[in-house]
Amino acid sequence: MRISELSATTDVPIGTIKYYLREGLLPAGRRSSRTTADYDDGHAERLRLIRALVQTGGLGIAAVRRVLAVIDDPDPQRLDVLSTAQDALTGGGGEGAEARPVDPVHAWVAARGWPTGPGDPVLEQLGNAWAACEAAGIHVDEAMMGDYADAVEQVARVDVAAVPQGAGDAVRRVVIGTIMMEPVLSALRLLAQRHVSVRQAGKPDDD
Amino acid sequence: MRISELSATTDVPIGTIKYYLREGLLPAGRRSSRTTADYDDGHAERLRLIRALVQTGGLGIAAVRRVLAVIDDPDPQRLDVLSTAQDALTGGGGEGAEARPVDPVHAWVAARGWPTGPGDPVLEQLGNAWAACEAAGIHVDEAMMGDYADAVEQVARVDVAAVPQGAGDAVRRVVIGTIMMEPVLSALRLLAQRHVSVRQAGKPDDD
To answer: Domain for residue A8, yes or no?
Structure first.
């Protein structure tokens, strides 16, 4: 199909498609004349994925490139799907908050028995986000963080159970699933807050 | 303090401070001469909050304005802190994915016994995010969504338990806490995925 059809099919403006082509996120079409190129369903699928990562996942172009690189070419030497996926998700390092000493957070994570190590980018992300809460006047002590961690462990159990067998597709599923489920979890959280507070208020409920 | 000091104290560039002043997010300083104005600690605190909402929370200017309006002036007629907070958090409606029929999602939420109603913006957000997963090739069936919802209900219990008494501060805590905890929960999720998958792989762990 021509670029105009690709745009119509995917609902992505032509200018945006050209930008993704220039940035190398979308592979070039098959040249069909001096001025036109031909695109196939693979291009449409890739385009929809990029849009989902950018719009729903809130990723920047650099993060999208990293995610696509991991999905396109999972390192066959690395059998650990999850750490491959996590590298793609955290490669940019913490943004938005100043760097902070990771030591107390490291100690807290280690005390939980969660695996971590020096230079762990996820730990840095947690440290920055935790510090940003404090900076915004939201005090979260270690006990409360522990309660959150217990709850999130349940979420992670559902995540891990959904990982399919077979390395290539597993990486794809973990990376995209982790990103795309974030807004779903955010909406569930708001709905669940409402449910919990209605129940606490002692109104009759269905259980 | 002068605007240059305010900038130095908060690590926010002067141009950005002027932008927030023009947009009305930050109240004007007390005019101290024809060309200078004086800012106090309240300005610095407000500025840090705006930066946290924008950078860590990923909010746009319109959403920040909505959140600040609710925090500054919680409607005294509305005793329901949570729904006030949720209105501020969802006022923009779903962005990034096309509008989708809310009916199946409504049925699913109603079947769980979670409170909802027609035109519920949180439900729309859930519907859009769920549809975006499917569009990105991540199939999430109702059973799996139920497992996620069970886990997130745990998170919401911790959220609700942290709501302080007293309407004004409660709104502030719920709105800012909900936004600022999102990146914390995301990082915990990655750490917990690792923990769960290590345990599943049968490696020895500390419990």
So the answer is: no
Q: What are the chain B neighbours of A181 within 8 Å (beta carbons)?
A: 133, 138, 140, 148
Instruction: Write out pLDDT tens, residues A22-46.
Output: 999 999 999 988 888 999 999 998 9
Q: How many domains does chain B divide into?
A: 2
Asked if B151 lies within 8 A of A140 by C-beta distance, the reply is: no
Is B118's Cβ below 8 Å from some Cβ in A? Answer: no
Q: What is the Cα–Cα distance from B101 to A125, expressed in whole angstroms?
A: 36
Contact B189, A152 (CB under 8 A): yes
Does residue B61 belong to any structural domain of this protein? no
Within a domain: A114: yes
**Could you tell me if A181 and B137 are in contact, meaning their C-beta atoms sit under 8 angstroms apart?**
no
- Same-domain status, B49 and B81: no
- Confidence category of residue B194, pLDDT binned at 50, 70, 90: confident
pLDDT, tens only, B122-137:
888 898 888 888 877 7
Q: How much is the pTM? A: 0.73
In the numeric block, the tokens 């997010």 are attached to B25
Q: Chain A neighbours among B 13-42 (CB < 8 Å)?
A: none
ipTM comes to 0.73
* H or E element that contains B11: none
- Which positions 160-179 of B are in contact with A (Cβ < 8 Å)? 160-163, 172-174, 176-178
Strands B37-38 and B30-31: antiparallel
What residues in A contact B86, CB-CB < 8 Å? 190, 193-194
Residue A72 lies in a domain: no
pLDDT in tens, B43-100: 998 998 888 888 777 778 888 888 888 777 766 555 466 666 777 676 644 343 344 4
Q: Is A187 on the interface with B (CB under 8 A)?
A: yes
Question: Domain range holding B114?
Answer: 77-200
Residue B146 contacts residue B45 (beta carbons within 8 Å)? no
